[in-house]
Amino acid sequence: MEDQSKQLPKYIQVKKRLLSYIQEEQLQPGDLIPSENKLVKLFHVSRNTVRQAIDELVNLNVLATRQGKGTYFKGFKNSGKVRSGLIGVINHTVLDGIYPAIIHGIEDVLHSREYTMVLSNSAHNTDREVASLKRMIEISIDGLIIEPTFSALMQPSDTTSLLLQSLDVPVIFTHFSAPFFSNSSIEVDEFQSGYLSAQYLIQKGHKDIAIIIKTDTLSLCHRLEGFLKALSDHNMQERPEFIKTFVEKDEKEIPGAHFSEELLALGKGRPTAIFYYNDEVALQGFRYLKSRNISIPDEMSILGFDNIDDIKGLTPGLTTFEHPKYSLGRWAAEMLFEELDSEAPSSSVM
Fold first, then answer.
1. Which of 35, 115, 172, 304 could form a disulfide with 110 if both were Cys (CB 3.0 to 4.6 A apart)?
2. Comparing C-alpha atoms, which of 38, 42, 48, 61 is closest to residue 10?
3. What is the dihedral of CA 94, 97, 100, 102, to 10 degrees?
4. Which 3 state secondary structure label does DSSP give 322?
């Protein structure tokens, strides 16, 4: 198997090799490391690469320099555990919806702490997720932030679960928690999100409300539960033909349009409002309804979720709920560093 660490920037590779050298040579605090000239020859890299690697370890408080005397080993924090300065981030998408803002929030915190992000997109594929986790383990990450793929279907015996349980570094889950994991998590209160979404449309006078939502993600299952509870609390009938659920493997190319078409086909028995589980799917539905000359919101009210940039400028505007995406990313990273310092798992619901 090819060494996955070779895909990292050269200075990070050298940093890892320097850490290995310190351990193999059993250096003690105060011992000098080899000179830059010797490290250039030892690792077959440029002087600039060596300096970048040393600077990284100085920032991590592993090394220190003395003017005119060289660079010496200061010691490892947390009972001698080596810090690589790498934080893994795995999401099932990185370019769509809320995820660029979440990643931005994580990156801002990592940058302020002088850590490097190793980002992986599992692309809704469990094999890719497993491969990403194995790579993270191989390059010795100091911590991991992950939103698991198909989280509603996860079991303790799954390969992903077993790999996560084997990690001896802090792991922060986003949009997910499960009783078979003791790891920390940060989540939006999805039950409340679904409840408030339905309640908003009910308060607008709607009695026939549909929902289009994925159900292979645990957080979205909770959102659906909240939506249905709001209908029940307002003595509204739950109509199966108005509840359009799907999972990733069955997802249509344009699910917002596909399921909106099915709802319109109900004729006089169609809903007067549709709650789309996110703004991307709502935008698909919006465009389909406009193509059918359905007046929004006069003939059909639509509600999205997340408040992403792509919906700005629509006419008429798309009503949506705000997702604290950037803040969620920052808080996940801050929780991870709290655990790196204290090793005490925690959780937070937003």
1. 115
2. 48
3. -100
4. strand
For the segment 194-245, what is each residue's pLDDT rounded down to a tens digit? 999 999 999 999 999 999 999 999 999 999 999 999 999 999 989 999 999 9
At 314, the amino acid letter reads L
Q: How confident is the model at residue 8 (pLDDT cuts 50, 70, 90)?
A: low
Q: Which two tokens stand for residue 143?
A: 């911590």
∠ CA(287), CA(251), CA(90), 5° rounding? 105
pLDDT above 70 coverage of the chain, percent: 92
Mean pLDDT lowest for which of 252-261, 295-304, 329-338?
A: 252-261
pTM of the model: 0.76
| CA 63 – CA 75 distance, rounded (Å) | 7
Q: Assign domain 190-323 to a CATH class.
A: alpha beta
To the nearest 10 degrees (0 to 180), the angle between helices 255-264 and 279-291 is: 50
The CATH topology of domain 86-188+327-349 is: Rossmann fold (3.40.50)
